[in-house]
Structure formats: C-alpha cells, structure tokens
Amino acid sequence: LNTLWAFWAVMRYGGLVNAARELHVSPQAVGQSIKHLENILQVQLFERTQRSLHPNKEAELLFHYVDAGLDELSYGLRQVDISKRRLGSQHESELPGPESAARWRRHMRT
C-alpha cells in the first residue's frame, strides 16, 4: 500500500521532491518505492532525466485506478468508523482509525 501511496503522490504533486514533502519522507524513499512498483509490474512508468520524472502512458493509466482505489479505501475506512461508533464498540480496533481516513482524504482532494 505504501508503494501505491508513493506513486499516487508523485503523480498528484508532480515529482519526487513534492511527493516526499507531502508524505514526510525523503525523495530517495519515494524513488525507491517507484522503482519497486516498476519491478513488481515489470513496466517502466516514468521517463527519467537527470533531474525529473515524466509519467508515460502506463503511469497515467495506473494513476486513474490507484486514485479511485485509494478514494474507495478512504470511504471504506470512514464507513467502518461510523459503524463502530453506532455500535458503541468498547474494544480497540486493529483497523486504521478516522485519522488515517481523514489524512488520505485530505491528500487526495487538495
């Protein structure tokens, strides 16, 4: 999931440095995540120059689905939180709480 999140941020914020700033990690960590995703998919997603990445058609296609998927995941986390509150659950949940959903939503729509 972190790999997809890094990919989403690079696409959304236009590069490694901006994505890293938003994710509070180093540009190198984001770059490693992108390379890991490319290795998993066995496809190059970006044209690289010395100082930048430019998404190719495959990256644009993947972004469409990753964006929608993260949006759905955020919605699902909110629904679980709403359900938990309605039921008055007294025990701790192992699922990410509303803070995670709010963070994802904020990053996805800003």
Task: Lay out the secondary structure.
Blueprint: H1 2-13, H2 16-23, H3 27-41, E1 46-48, E2 53-55, H4 57-87, H5 98-109
Antiparallel strand pairs: 1-2
General description of the model:
By secondary structure, the protein is mainly α. The protein has a single domain (2-109), classed as Winged helix-like DNA-binding domain superfamily/Winged helix DNA-binding domain (Arc Repressor Mutant, subunit A, Orthogonal Bundle). The protein is 71% helix and 5% strand. It has five helices and two strands, in the order H-H-H-E-E-H-H. The protein has a two-stranded antiparallel sheet with strand order 1-2. Strand 1 and strand 2 form a beta hairpin. The model has no long low-confidence stretch (mean pLDDT 86). One of its GO terms (molecular function) is DNA-binding transcription factor activity.
Keywords:
two-stranded antiparallel ribbon, mainly alpha, 110 residues, 5% strand, Arc Repressor Mutant, subunit A
